[in-house]
Sequence to fold (710 residues):
Amino acid sequence: MTTEQAEISRGRTFSGIWLIPLLALVLGIYLVAHTWLNEGPEIEISFMTADGLEQGKTKVKYRNVDMGVVEEVRLNDAFDGVIAKVKLDRQALPLLREDTRFWVVTARVGADNVSGLDTLLSGAYLQLTPGTGAKEARSFVGLEQPPETPTGAPGLRLQLTSDRASSVSTGDAVLFKGYKVGRVESMQFNPVDQHVHYEIFIDAPYHELVNSSVRFWDVSGVSISADASGFKVETGAMDTILFGGVTFGVPSGFYAGDAVAQNTEFKLHTSYEDILANPFRHGTYYVVSFDQSIKGLLPGAPVEFRGIQIGKVERIMLKEGLAVTKSLGEQGKGISFPILIYIEPGRMELPDSEDSIATMRESVEIGVTNGLRATMASGNLLTGSKYISIDFFEGAKAASLGSFMEYTTIPTIDSGLAQLDQKVNALLDNINALPLADTVASANTTIASLNQNLVSLQSILENQSTQQLPANLNETLQELRNAVENLSPGSQAGQVSIRACCR
Amino acid sequence: MTALTTAADRGMASCHVCYKLAPTTVHQCPRCGSTMHLRKSDSIQRTLALLVTACLLYIPANLYPIMYTDQLGSTEASTIMGGVILLIELGSAPIAAVIFIFSVMVPSGKLMAMFYLVWTVKRHSPLDPRQRSIMYRVTEFIGKWSMVDVFVVSILVALVHLGGLLVIRPGVAALSFAGVVIVTMIAAESFDSRLIWDNMEEKSSDN
Fold:
C-alpha cells in the first residue's frame, strides 16, 4: 500500500447536503400551495335550530361526496336562529348559486319510506343541491324540511289550490290511473284567500300526461255513496287510503289540451263527481242586481241563457250592497240586492280558455245594447227555487253594462214572475170581494121557484088534452106526408107544379 | 482541561470505518483502505442542513392530522396536539404526558439541542465541553424513542380495518413526523462530537 501525502482540505464551502432541506422546503411550499389553491369558499347557512349540526364534524355532501364541513355554529344576531359557517371544497364553487339549497339529513320515517338511517350512526349531515341561478351566493337559508324533489330533476312542478285541506299532505303520491307519477311537495294554507295551496311535482316522463284539459282530484280515503242502485264504495290505491293522494286525468268528453308551463295553477277538486259537476276551469264573474224579492235564489242556483245553463249564482252580496247603498246616501229606500254570478264559457261549447272569456264578455257587451237582460225566473214552483235567466227582451228600456265594485253588472228587468205574482194577487183579491153569500142565497130561491115550475109542468103533462096531443100530432104528420108525396118529381101533379115554377 | 490532548494535536487521524489511528499525512487507511478524514467531512454543514429539513418537516407534522378515524361514516381527524388536549380533557393525564413528552417535547428538544451544539461549535464557545457531550449523547440516545408515535399510528392503521365500522387511516403528519425523527437521527449521527473539544482547543490555542 502506497502512502501519499494527504492534503488537509477544509472541505467545500457548500455541501450537497443542503439539497435535502431545499427538497423539504419545496415539498412544504407545494403542500401550502396545494392547500391554498384548493381553499374552497366559506359560506353561511341559516337555520331555525342547530338540530344535528356539530361544529367541525357535520359534513356537507352532494351526491354523497364530501363537499365540506361545518366549522362553526352560532346564534344569529337576533337570537332567533342559528348560522352555520361552512368551509367548502373548491370543487363546490360552481354549485353555489342563489338557488342552491341546503338541508339537514337525519333519519326520517315518512309515510311511504324511511330515509337517512345511516345518519343514526354517523350523525346528521348537510345535503347540498346545486342551483342553476344566474348569480353566485355565499349565504343561504337552509331548508327545515328536505325538499321532496331534488333541484333540477326533470319533470313538471304545478300549483294546486283547494278550498279545504282534505287529507292530502306533503309527501303524498300523485297518481295517474293508479300509478304513482309524482308527489305533493308542500302544502300551505293562505289565510288571505282562504285556500290551501299545494305544490306538486310530476316526474319525467309522466309530466307529458299533464295538459291544459286535465283536472286534479283528491283520491284520499274511501268514498261511500248510496243511491237507488245500492251502496258504492270507491277507494284509490292502498296507500292513498292511509295517507291520501291526488290523481289527475282528462274528464270524459274533453279533448287533451295544450302542454302546460311550469308552476301552472290547477284546482284540486274534492272528487271526480265534483269535476263532472264543474268541469270547466275558466269562468268570469258578473253582478246582477234585483229590485225585488230574491226569495228562493240560493248560491249555486243555475244561471241560464235561453234555457242552457251557463253558470251559477256564486253569492248574494248583501253586505257589499248595503255598503254601497250607504255610501250613496240612499238609506231607507230599500236596496237592490247585488248577486254575484259565475259564468263559464265552456258551457256554451266555447273552448275552455281565457280567450273565450274575452269573446264572451265582448258578446255580452254588444248583446246588452240589443236587449240582453238578466231576470229572475222560477225554476221549481213546488220548492220555490229560482234561477237567473239571461235572454234578449224586445222593447227593454235602453241600458248598458255598469260596474259594482270590481265586477261588471248586467242590466236586469223585473222578472215575468214578479209581474205575474202581482196579477194573481189582484185576481184573488177580486175573487175575495165577490158577494158569494148573496149569490148563493138568490140561487137557492131560484132553485125553489124552479122546483114549483117543474111541479106545475108535471100537472100540465098529466092533463087529458096533453095526453091526446101525440095522436093529433101523428094524424097531422100523416096528412103532411100525403101532401109531400103528391109534390114528388115522379107524379103528375109534381111535374105540373115544377114546370109552373120554372116559368 | 489543559491536560486534554486530542489525536489531531498529535497529527493523527482516526479511520471512520475501522478506527485505526494513522498519521494525518496518509490519504487512505493503512488497514482497511478507506479514505481518511481528520474529522467527519462537512459535519457542521450537514448537521445544520438536516436540522433545517427536520424543522421544515416539523411544521406539517404538527399542523396536519396524524391520523383519520372513520367511525361509522363520520371521519375524525386528529393532530398530535389535538390528541394530547383530548386525552387531558378525558382525564387521562398520564397518557397525555407520555404522548406529549415523546411526540412534542423530545423532537423539539432534540432539534433545539442540536442547533445549540452546532451553534456553540461554530462560535468556538468556551462552555463546558463535558456537559455539551452529555447533551449530545442524551440527544442521540433519546432520538429513536420519538418513533413511538409513528409506530403507534402504523400499528393502528394496520390493525384497525373493521370495514365500515372503524377504519384508521394515516395522515400527512405521520409521514412528516417520521421524517422529522429520521432526519434528526441522521443529523445527530453526522454531527462530529469531537468538534466540541476541537474548538475548545483551537480557541485555547488561539488565546
